[in-house]
Amino acid sequence: MIFSKIEWHESLASTNSLLLERVVGGKILEPGFVVAARQQTAGRGRYERKWIAPAGKNLTFSFLLTPHAEPEKMVSLTLATALGVAEALTHFGVQAQTKWPNDVLVTNKKICGILAERADVSSSTAIVVGVGINVNASTDELAAIDRPATSILAETGEETLIETVLERVLESLSTWIDQWQEGGFPILEKAWLERCSGVGEHIRVGESGSAQEGILEGFGQFGQLLLRSDDGTVNEIWAGDVNWREDQ
């Protein structure tokens, strides 16, 4: 995949929102178009959680895809993105794991979140993928987040230019998105299992009122989570937050 253009903004409410508005509004953009911001004031994660990026501290960007894929295949798009980010982080001295379906962790602390959203256009399927990476957030700033979080700075003690991080991440994503488009989750599965946290462990999936618990058995052909309950039944989970037993 070629990332055709990077459009930098000093400050945006949300890179995803801007790119979605343009696509829905009829603007013609090439697949691989990237919107990046040095500050994000109203970023969104899954379930409308906030992802705020103070000026110059963290990297937030979104890119456009127009895949020709069945809906089931789209489940593994965020998995491919997470693998690309995790691989890129190794170049900055950070060894990361993935967490189904859309996070990147370092020792169970979140360093990256991913949000894929479908643009409602009639002519083709357009997907906007947003990525937020904690780059230069300090330990004090990370402590203010409502969930365990870390950053490249916290892990290495060194500040890194967010532009440099974006360049490296896009280089890695280019390969992983190409593989995903070619073969879906089956082509990603080996690498995913090597990096994914929680496999074989007791987990809880979903919000408190409708959560399911069991052993993370593995993943299906489209990247859906396979959850084995106490009675041995294996259920397919297509979406939801994963929490470890100690978090429950």
List keywords for this structure.
alpha+beta; SH3 type barrels; BirA Bifunctional Protein, domain 2; seven-stranded mixed sheet; five-stranded antiparallel sheet; 30% strand; 248 residues; 5 helices
What does this structure look like?
By secondary structure, the protein is an alpha+beta fold. The chain has two domains: 191 residues, Bira Bifunctional Protein, Domain 2 (BirA Bifunctional Protein, domain 2); 46 residues, SH3 type barrels. It has five helices and 14 strands. Strands 1-2-5-9-8-7-6 form a seven-stranded mixed β-sheet, sandwiched between helices. A hairpin with a 6-residue loop joins strand 8 and strand 9. Helix 2 packs across helix 5. The longest helix has 34 residues.
What is the name of the CATH class of the largest domain?
Answer: Alpha Beta
Distance between the termini: 40 Å
Q: Which architecture of the largest domain does the CATH hierarchy give at level 2?
A: 2-Layer Sandwich
Q: Specify Rg, calculated over alpha carbons.
A: 17 Å
CATH-wise, what's the superfamily of the largest domain? Answer: Bira Bifunctional Protein, Domain 2
Mean pLDDT: 91
Strand content: 25-35%
Amount of helix: 25-40%
| Rough outline | globular
Oligomer: single chain
The count of domains is 2
Please give the number of β-strands: 14
Low-pLDDT residue spans: none
Structural class: alpha+beta
